[in-house]
Design a protein that fits this description.
With 715 residues, the protein is mainly α. Among the domains are: 65-189, no CATH class; 672-714. It has 30 helices and six strands. It has helices at 8-21, 53-77, 81-91, 99-116, 119-139, 144-151, 167-170, 172-189, 196-215, 222-228, 251-260, 265-274, 279-287, 294-308, 382-387, 406-419, 460-481, 485-495, 499-502, 504-521, 524-541, 546-553, 564-567, 570-584, 591-610, 622-626, 672-675, 678-688, 692-701, 706-714, and strands at residues 229-233, 290-292, 339-340, 346-347, 365-367, 370-372. Helix 4 (99-116) runs antiparallel to helix 8 (172-189) and helix 20 runs antiparallel to helix 24 (570-584). Residues 29-58, 320-358, 652-671 are annotated as: Disordered.
């Protein structure tokens, strides 16, 4: 599962959209609630065209609505029904026109007033009965008056009496059920669905768990999925009575929704009814009922963003409630952090440092959520030094990494600055959920304890050494993304002369890029020199590279058929280089990539078993995550067995053909249409409440006759 190809660039786009939608980065002008951007700040992505201004406004409104929903949820869960009602009257008054919901909230308000236990609150509870609850019970729904009479028993039964007939009304669990119900209804009413990445992650993890359960295989990411996805879901939005007149829905839609989000058939019908027959809106409503642990998700996203160079590794110590950390370093969970003195050793004194007379006045740097005195990193060009803390205290010209000669790694680090880590990188600083106290840092995230990292007492030299490695790898990745293959080879050889001896396929691909770049510029003699010096010898040592070599040489005959920047999969090559070099330096891939690799794999396998195409794949951008470009100019250049020759680095972006055929089946697998009629499949699924795969297998045993299958089951 860990070797399943994933399109890193598609995942980057989803995560950037998630970070912007949830306002997790500093100085993002998309949302009015974020701090104002400074003139020198770079945006997370290129500024949107004028035509997208309405989309930006819609995203901002959706963000504010999600904050409102979380606030109302928090108030109900804490028992403050009055404040929740005030927010509803102010922001979503039409919700309270549904007397079912109003009765539910007023009943809980009555219980909460009694729960307080004072004589004054008891009088308020009786007044609530007379003025609000009783009138609402008369026309809420037929059973409401009976429920009203039942809840009166709370006046005489104590809240601690677990055997009382109203123990369920007194239960704290009741609060969470009502809070979840209100969240589901408000989410649909305000069109405040979660960002696509959240829905995609829920969907893929749900399928992954179901697949592992049904196939009896153990999940390699169970440690993460158990903490990411809560078992309990929010209650479904209650269908309005006025919608019962909706005509019957297409059975294909009903079954697709039921099996996509694990509903009963009636649950799928009710969901479609609530969404007025809109399949994808119903799907959004249902998938958002699955609750994510946002504290853990934010940690995983931050780790990924640092690894990919989307955000700065130095995070602000704002009141976001999330631990601030860099890369894969282990962070201080106690909130005290650690400080360091000028000599780079840990120090318990966190007092403010003063700059010397010859230094610029800048605020203390934050590394791993802790204050580091600027005395350690200040040079005349303090801006650069603050941005790129890759020098040791003792030798500011040295950015060595373990096992690499200092002189060579120093040159690589300086080159990284000029090429990749300058002002143009456009990185943002991580902000966290400082607008939202719904997700405090109370849920531990201990994934880093199972990975290579540094404890809270690591020296500043070690921290700088780690950041040096990360910046070096990101610098090489940026060079590769820009098509600077010769420079990449030069830098990697300076960093680790043994690297390409163990990763010859990567060297071959880089030299291919260099060859094609020279052909594109008209330098045919230079291109042939590269082919003779590198491509030929590499192919001679690896017969699997011989065919790609021949196809590459054809570019000499058709130089105008290849648009160098447009056609070459430079981003995919850069990502593979990042993973390979990072592993060489002891930097592991982010845990979020482990999750995506495993869940994409099981998604592929699940729909092979189901023998159908996923109706929601495009909607959730799962298809984009699977669109992994091959490493060469054309598919004929990259043989299907290319990835078997790539040793020592991740296969995430190497596969030459990773997408399933259009019918969702594997190439050697018979599609469901060849086994039996789609109507017969749906009939068996409906009558026997079976998953699609089981229905197909039964039909295959009885020549595709649905009536025979049903008769045999009930015989």
């Amino acid at each position: 599962m860990d070797s399943t190809p994933v399109n890193w660039e598609a995942l980057d786009a989803l995560i950037i959209e998630f970070a912007k939608s949830e306002n997790l980065v500093i100085n993002d002008s998309s949302f009015s609630s974020s701090p104002p951007s400074s003139p020198s700040s770079s945006s997370l992505s290129p500024p949107p065209p004028p035509s997208s201004s309405s989309s930006s406004s819609s995203a901002s409104l959706s963000y504010q609505s999600r904050l409102l929903i979380r606030q109302i949820r928090r108030l109900i869960e804490s028992g403050d029904i009055d404040s929740a009602l005030d927010l509803l009257r102010l922001h979503a008054p039409s919700i309270l026109n549904d007397h079912r919901l109003l009765f539910c909230l007023q009943k809980q308000k009555f219980i909460e007033l009694l729960r307080r236990g004072t004589a004054e609150d008891r009088d308020s509870a009786v007044n609530c009965l007379r003025t609000a609850l009783a009138p609402c019970a008369l026309d809420a729904y037929p059973e409401a008056y009976e429920e009203f009479k039942h809840v009166l028993l709370a006046l005489i039964y104590d809240k601690d009496d677990s055997t009382s007939p109203v123990a369920n009304e007194w239960s704290d669990r009741r609060r969470f059920e009502i809070a979840g119900l209100m969240s589901s209804i408000l989410r649909a009413h305000l069109h405040a669905h979660d960002p696509v990445f959240c829905m995609t992650l829920r969907y893929l993890i749900s399928i992954h768990k179901e697949f592992c359960l049904r196939q009896g295989v153990s999940s390699p990411i169970s440690d993460l999925t158990e903490r990411l996805l809560f078992e309990e879901r929010d209650p479904p939005a209650t269908p309005q009575e006025s919608l019962f007149e909706v005509p019957p829905f297409d059975e294909v839609d009903i079954q697709a929704l039921a099996h996509a989000v694990q509903l009963t058939r009636q649950g799928a019908v009710d969901s479609l009814r609530f969404a007025k027959g809109d399949l994808f809106k119903a799907f959004q409503n249902e998938i958002c009922r699955v609750r994510l642990n946002m504290t853990v998700l934010d940690e995983l996203v931050h780790e990924y963003c640092v690894y990919r160079g989307i955000v700065d590794p130095v995070a602000p110590s704002s009141g976001s409630g999330l631990p601030s950390h860099s890369g894969h370093m282990e962070v201080d969970r106690s909130g005290t952090g650690f400080c360091s003195s000028g000599n780079g050793s840990p120090d318990g004194d966190c007092g403010n440092s003063k700059n010397s007379d010859g230094e610029s006045s800048i605020s203390n740097a934050l590394i791993d959520g802790c204050e580091i005195s600027t005395e350690m990193i200040t040079k005349p060009d303090t801006d650069v030094e603050m941005r790129f803390p890759c020098e040791n205290v003792s030798n500011l010209d040295d950015c060595s990494t373990s096992g690499i000669p200092q002189a060579k790694s120093s040159r690589v680090c300086r080159r990284n600055r000029s090429h990749a880590v300058g002002e143009g990188r456009g990185r943002k600083r991580w902000r966290g959920r400082s607008d939202d106290s719904d997700f405090p840092a109370g849920v531990p995230f201990d994934g880093s304890s199972k990975r290579e990292g540094f404890g809270i007492h690591a020296s500043v030299d070690v921290l700088y050494n780690k950041e040096d490695k990360c910046e070096t790898v990101l610098g090489i990745k940026e060079l590769a993304s820009g098509g600077m293959a010769a420079e990449v080879v030069e830098e990697v050889n300076a960093l680790d002369p043994e690297f390409f001896r163990q990763n010859s396929a990567l060297l071959f691909q880089l030299k291919q890029v260099e060859f094609l770049k020279l052909v594109d510029s008209g330098d045919h003699s230079g291109a042939l020199k590269v082919a003779c010096s590198y491509l030929g010898p590499l192919a001679a040592n690896d017969p699997g590279l011989l065919k790609p070599l021949k196809e590459t040489l054809l570019a000499l005959l058709r130089p105008n058929e290849v648009a160098f920047r447009k056609d070459l999969p430079l981003d995919a090559l850069a990502s593979s280089l990042q993973v390979a070099i990072g592993r060489r330096l002891g930097i592991q891939e982010p845990q979020l990539m482990r999750v995506m690799q495993a869940t994409i794999h099981t998604h592929n396998e699940w729909f092979k078993v189901q023998m159908c195409k996923d109706r929601f794949e495009s909607f959730l951008k799962v298809d984009a995550l699977k669109e992994v470009k091959s490493m060469l100019v054309a598919n004929t250049v990259y043989g299907s067995n290319m990835d078997t020759h790539i040793h020592g680095f991740s296969q995430d972006t190497v596969s030459s053909s990773t997408r399933l055929p259009e019918d969702g089946a594997s190439p050697n697998q018979v599609s469901s249409q060849e086994v039996c009629d789609e109507g017969a499949i749906l009939k068996v699924m409906e009558f026997l409440a079976l998953p699609r795969a089981d229905a197909i297998h039964l039909l295959a045993q009885y020549n595709g006759n649905a009536e025979t299958v049903i008769q045999q089951i009930f015989a």
